[in-house]
Amino acid sequence: MEVSRTIALSAIALCLGIGTAYAGEDVRVAGEDEIATQWIQLTSNAPLGYPAEFADRGDNVCLAMGYAINNDGTTSDFSLLGSWNSATGDVEPVPGYWGAFAQAGANALSHWQFEPRPGVDVAGTTYTVATLGFQGGDPLAPEALREHCQVDIHALVAASWGDQQRSRRVAERERDRIIGASPIHSPRVDIRYEPAPQVAIDTGSSPRR
Predict the structure, then answer these.
(1) Which regions of the chain does DSSP assign to beta strands (E)?
(2) Residues 46/207, Cβ–Cβ less than 8 Å
(3) For residue 49, what are the contacts with CB-CB under 8 A and spacing of at least 6?
C-alpha cells in the first residue's frame, strides 16, 4: 500500500507538529483500542453516508482515518491513512474515489465528541485513528471489512518521524556541500522539502445528509 503509506506519513508529519500544525504543543498518540482508556465518547457514531456518485458501483469500502481529539473533546485534522475496496483492493479504481469516501468519513468523525476519563490527564492534543466501513451491494461482516485497512498508528508515527529526520540530514549534507565548494561569500543554502501529496479534507464543510 505504498501510495497510502506516503499519504499517511505526510498527514501524520503535519498533524503531530513534525510539520507546523501543532508546533509547540504536547501531542500524544493513541491507538484505536487505546482511546477508550483515556477518553469517553459522548456521542453515538454518526451514520456513514455512502458517496452518491459511487453508489452504483456497490463496492464495500473501508478507510483508516487519522484525526485529532482536542482539549475540549472536539475532533479535527482528518486525514486518510489507509484504504481498501472490494473491487480493486488498495488501488483507486477511478479518480476522486478515495477523496469522496474520505470526505464522508471526515463528515461523520466531525460529529464525535469526547470528554476525558476521570483522573486521566489528557492535556494537549491526542492523535489517533478510526477504522470506518462502508457496506456495498454484497455486504461483508463488519469486522471482516475493517480488517482490510486497520493500521498501527504508532508504527506510522515512528516511520513519519524517521522520514523527517532523514530528509533533514540530507538537506544539511547538501547545504554543507554547496557552501563548502565555495566558502568565500557563500550565502546560506536552505533546502526545503514539500510534503507528499495527501487527500484534501475540507473540515469546514457541512456534513452530508
Answers:
(1) 27-29, 39-41, 61-69, 75-85, 114-116, 125-134
(2) yes
(3) 104, 107, 108, 207, 208, 209
The SS3 call for residue 209 is coil
**Per-residue cell: 112:** 464525535
pLDDT of residue 159: 76
Task: Set out the domains of the chain in order of their start, with CATH numbers.
Answer: 2-181 (3.30.2420.10)
Assign 44 to helix, strand or coil.
coil
Grid cell for residue 70: 482536542
Helix (H, G, I), strand (E, B) or coil at 143: helix
Q: Can you tell me the distance from the alpha carbon of 44 to that of 9, in angstroms, rounded to the nearest whole number?
A: 29
Task: Tell me the DSSP string of 60-91.
Answer: -EEEEEEEEE-TTS-EEEEEEEEEEETTTBTS
Reference 127, options 13, 204, 5; nearest CA is 13
> What averages of pLDDT result for each successive group of 10 residues across the chain (209 residues)?
37 46 64 91 87 95 93 91 94 94 92 92 85 92 91 81 56 53 36 36 40
pTM of the model: 0.69
